[in-house]
Specification:
This protein is of the alpha/beta class. Helices cover 24% and strands 26% of the residues. The strands form 4 sheets. Strands 3, 4, 5, 8, 9, 16 and 17 form a 7-stranded mixed beta sheet that branches.
């Protein structure tokens, strides 16, 4: 292939426009993937509007990619032309640091992100280091699997790492792209699951996805009623909240884990942390090993994204709908 065609942001917050780039020689460790589907993660929206100050324009967003391998570099082992694979947020790591050698490549200080200072998956093709292209089993549809590659692993990894099990009481805050997959995984782990949402209209679907209970976070009374109930609360929302009310919802030794990125610093009192040994933490995506595990769990337990499909060319419509919190529950672009 000589030119890769995609849709790029050319300035902060701008509409995406058709854009082509020349990917150069295929490097030894790289695979080229012909993209069939790409999910629209809220992180793409943060990058388009340069919320994190790391965006360089023009760039093609997109990091929930499914497609078929069309070329393999000379040093690639274990992937073949024609194989269906998925790519998430991470496209490379050094492979040598203490984190990479432990299989925690998502913590590599020089990790490369699929669509930060390089071009991602709102395109017809992409190239990544083959270690970050994960085989997709036949049991998963491409559209249902694409959002697992970022949103899915981002919620699976902390639920798994924090030992969520049938005795756990788990809260999932924000029932969007990440949150609706978190409800499913928390249920697969056997936990008692509560959905925290600002959208009352999502209650029925949240229960169908795995929630045993539903809390409308706009109702102060409902928040007070769940005080002291949870072992683990995972927040996926990209907005500021009264975080003290979530700390108060934790049992002693409970954990509030951030995967969603609120715009402002998190402000809480130290007392409930001290007296109840409660923890505030965060979690970034997951390693290739965890990705493979998560894909296997999803295939065996029927976890998949509930999607709204858009043709790739209608990317701006999809982004607009995500911005308005109108998508149920993940927009996926299809070529
Ligand atoms: P999304 O599909 O837009 O869902 C976000 C949800 O947050 C919404 O559906 C809504 O749920 C809730 N929400 C939105 N605005 C709110 C407000 N003003 N107040 C309270 N709740 C609000 O987004 P997403 O793709 O799931 O991504 C969520 C966040 O995770 C983003 O910040 C993204 O950058 C981040 N992220 C982090 C990682 C990581 O590695 N840590 C990976 C991927 C994404 P309800 O309607 O239920 O209230
Ligand atoms: Zn993402």
């Amino acid at each position: 292939m000589t030119l890769i065609k995609g849709l790029a942001a050319h300035a902060a917050g701008a509409e995406l426009l058709p854009f082509r780039y020349e990917p150069g020689e295929l490097r030894g460790q790289e695979v080229e993937i012909r993209i069939s589907h790409c999910g629209v993660c809220h992180s793409d929206l943060h990058l388009i509007s340069n919320d994190w100050g790391i965006s360089q324009y023009p760039f093609i967003p997109g990091h929930e990619i499914i497609g078929k391998v069309t070329a393999v570099g000379a040093d690639v082992k274990g992937l073949e032309i024609g194989q269906r694979v998925g790519v998430g947020w991470q496209s490379n790591s050094c492979g040598l640091c203490e984190w990479c050698t432990q299989g925690l490549e998502n913590l590599c200080p020089t990790a490369e992100a699929t669509c930060v200072r390089r071009h991602g998956g709102y395109a017809d093709a992409v190239r990544v280091n083959s270690r970050f292209a994960i085989p997709i089993p036949d049991a998963l549809s491409s559209e249902g699997a694409a959002p697992l590659l970022c949103g899915g692993i981002t919620v699976y990894n902390p639920l798994r790492s924090h030992g969520v099990n049938p005795s756990s009481r788990v809260g999932i805050v924000g029932i969007g792209g990440l949150g609706h997959m978190a409800l499913q995984f928390a249920r697969v782990f056997g936990a008692d699951v509560t959905a925290f949402s600002t959208s009352e209209a999502k209650e029925k679907e949240a229960r169908a996805l795995g929630a045993h209970h539903f809390v409308n976070t706009r109702e102060a009374r409902q928040m007070r009623e769940v005080a002291g109930k949870f072992d683990f609360i995972l927040t996926t929302i990209n907005a500021d909240q009264d975080w003290m009310s979530y700390i108060q919802a934790l049992r002693p030794t409970g954990t509030l884990c951030f995967v969603g990125v609120p715009p402002s610093p998190i402000s809480v009192h130290a007392f409930p942390l001290i007296s109840g040994v409660r923890t505030i933490t965060g979690s970034p995506i997951g390693s290739p090993h965890r990705l493979r595990e998560m894909i296997d769990v999803a295939a065996r337990h029927g976890v998949k994204a509930q999607t709204e499909s858009f043709p790739m060319a209608k990317v701006n419509e999809a982004i607009d709908k995500v911005k308005k919190n109108k998508v149920r529950y993940r927009a996926v672009l299809a070529n």
